[in-house]
């Protein structure tokens, strides 16, 4: 039985759709006109609408390869342009989800729902001055396209710097996990204070110790494990969160880690650089495929999905190399290495290898989001069972990136 409030909203949404047609006069627009997604969880509303009205024999977000084909000019190109935003093909469920957001106070045009859809599925880039603001407060990073990755990851500069210090030299990929975990803790503590909670169940000690540290590996094993479990919990779910420290809608947690890793990596680049100052790829310098390990990547001009695929492969190789080195595993870095190696989001189940790279695929996002919706009483449990089977099939096929 649907909750009364939701049923009432759906009836109102049906009336609201009577005026949806006026927006369809705008057929398309270049993506750069709508680079910033507005507040409101459009994907959750869309999944709710489609699972409520359609039997889930397929992903309610559509076939993943088809979604990429519609969003990207050339999905095979590592630095593909994004296709123009368009309302062509928007169906009744899409319009209904849009109307529901409006009734909840989240107002956006139909074209802007496309921006939100692409943003949450990792189909946008991080070019300074386009998707990300052009900041001048990171002079120590040298290039604006390095800072753009930090901004998209939503990490405060002090935490970005401290995480690299604590992770120690040669551990930038591990530092990305530490930076995002610490940022998550900072965000949760701030939210608890803002709501007046006297007991939030959060432990502020690791963050305080981290910010006071002046040497590598200063965190205790317990503090490190606490931060990684906090990160794992966020990787396991899909919940709407407050805007980032830079005022932007947060990208999925896995993307935050990948973008942080990209910032650490690109911070080390020397001329000739793979990106121009505006974040656009310099094709004569940059790697043209994820398999190219001899040239640098222009991460700012890559969509989040490709950055995540790069990060996943790089981390697996890095962890494998460290595990096979007895000296490394006996060093002060070992606790952090082991804690990151144990990260295993709940939606992965028994899957290993490159399965985490699929976290932004439509089948996986649909199942992860629907789990939250079932807990909220908005979607039937039987629907979740069907979508989890689709996600498992996707993971069995392996990553397509």
Question: How do the strands and helices of this protein lay out in sequence?
Answer:
Elements: H1 4-16, E1 28-29, H2 42-53, H3 64-71, E2 85-86, H4 92-103, H5 110-120, H6 144-153, H7 157-167, H8 172-195, H9 205-212, H10 221-236, H11 253-267, H12 304-323, H13 326-329, H14 334-341, H15 362-375, H16 381-397
Antiparallel strand pairs: 1-2
Helix pairs in contact: 1-4, 2-4, 2-15, 6-11, 7-8, 8-10, 8-11, 10-14, 11-12, 15-16
Element order, helices and strands?
HEHHEHHHHHHHHHHHHH
Reported for the largest beta sheet, the result is:
2 strands, antiparallel
Average pLDDT for all residues: 87
Broad structural category: mainly alpha
| Total discrete domains | 2
User: Order of strands in the sheet with the most strands?
Assistant: 1-2
Radius of gyration: 21 Å
Percentage of residues in helical conformation: 40-55%
The shape is: globular
**Could you name the ranges where pLDDT drops below 50 across 5 or more consecutive residues?**
1-27
Q: Strand tally, please?
A: 2
Distance between the termini: 40 Å
Query: How many DSSP helices?
Result: 16
What fraction of residues sit in β-strands? Answer: under 5%
Please characterize this protein's 3D structure.
By secondary structure, the chain is an all-alpha fold. 51% of the residues lie in helices and 1% in strands. The chain has two domains: 4-18 and 25-121 and 360-397, no CATH class; 139-272 and 299-356, no CATH class. The chain is built from 16 helices and two strands. Helix 8 packs across helix 11. The protein is globular, with a radius of gyration of 21 Å. The two termini are 40 Å apart.
């Amino acid at each position: 039985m649907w909750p009364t409030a939701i049923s009432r909203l759906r009836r109102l949404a049906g009336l609201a759709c009577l005026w949806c047609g006026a927006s369809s006069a705008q057929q398309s627009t270049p993506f750069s006109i709508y680079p910033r997604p507005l507040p409101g969880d459009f994907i959750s509303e869309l999944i709710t609408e489609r699972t409520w009205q359609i039997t889930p024999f397929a992903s309610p977000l559509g076939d993943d390869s088809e979604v990429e084909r519609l969003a990207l000019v050339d999905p095979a190109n590592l630095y593909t342009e994004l296709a123009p935003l368009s309302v062509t093909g928007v169906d009744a469920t899409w319009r209904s989800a849009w109307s529901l957001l409006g009734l909840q106070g989240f107002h956006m045009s139909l074209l802007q729902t496309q921006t939100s859809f692409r943003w949450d599925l990792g189909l946008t880039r991080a070019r300074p001055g386009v998707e990300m603001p052009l900041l001048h407060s990171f002079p120590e990073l040298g290039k604006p396209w390095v800072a753009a990755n930090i901004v998209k990851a939503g990490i405060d500069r002090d935490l970005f710097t401290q995480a690299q210090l604590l992770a120690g030299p040669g551990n930038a990929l591990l530092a990305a996990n530490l930076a995002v975990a610490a940022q998550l803790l900072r965000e949760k503590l701030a939210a608890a204070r803002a709501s007046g909670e006297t007991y939030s169940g959060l432990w502020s000690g690791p963050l305080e110790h981290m910010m006071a540290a002046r040497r590598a590996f200063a965190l205790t094993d317990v503090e490190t494990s606490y931060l990684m479990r906090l990160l794992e919990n966020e990787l396991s779910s899909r919940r709407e969160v407050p805007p980032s420290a830079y005022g932007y809608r947060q990208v999925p947690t896995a993307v935050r880690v990948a973008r942080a890793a990209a910032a650490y990596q690109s911070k080390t680049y020397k001329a000739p650089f793979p990106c121009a100052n505006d974040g656009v790829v310099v094709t004569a310098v940059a790697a043209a495929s994820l398999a190219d390990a001899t040239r640098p990547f222009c991460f700012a001009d890559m969509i989040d999905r490709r950055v995540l695929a790069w990060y996943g492969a790089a981390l697996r190789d890095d962890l494998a190399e460290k595990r096979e080195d007895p000296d490394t595993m006996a060093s002060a870095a070992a606790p952090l290495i082991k804690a990151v190696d144990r990260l295993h989001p709940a939606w992965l189940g028994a899957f290993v290898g490159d399965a985490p790279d699929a976290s932004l695929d439509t089948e996986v996002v649909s199942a992860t989001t629907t789990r939250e919706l079932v807990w909220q009483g908005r979607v039937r449990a039987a629907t979740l069972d069907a979508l989890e089977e689709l996600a498992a099939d996707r993971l069995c096929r392996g990553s397509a990136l």
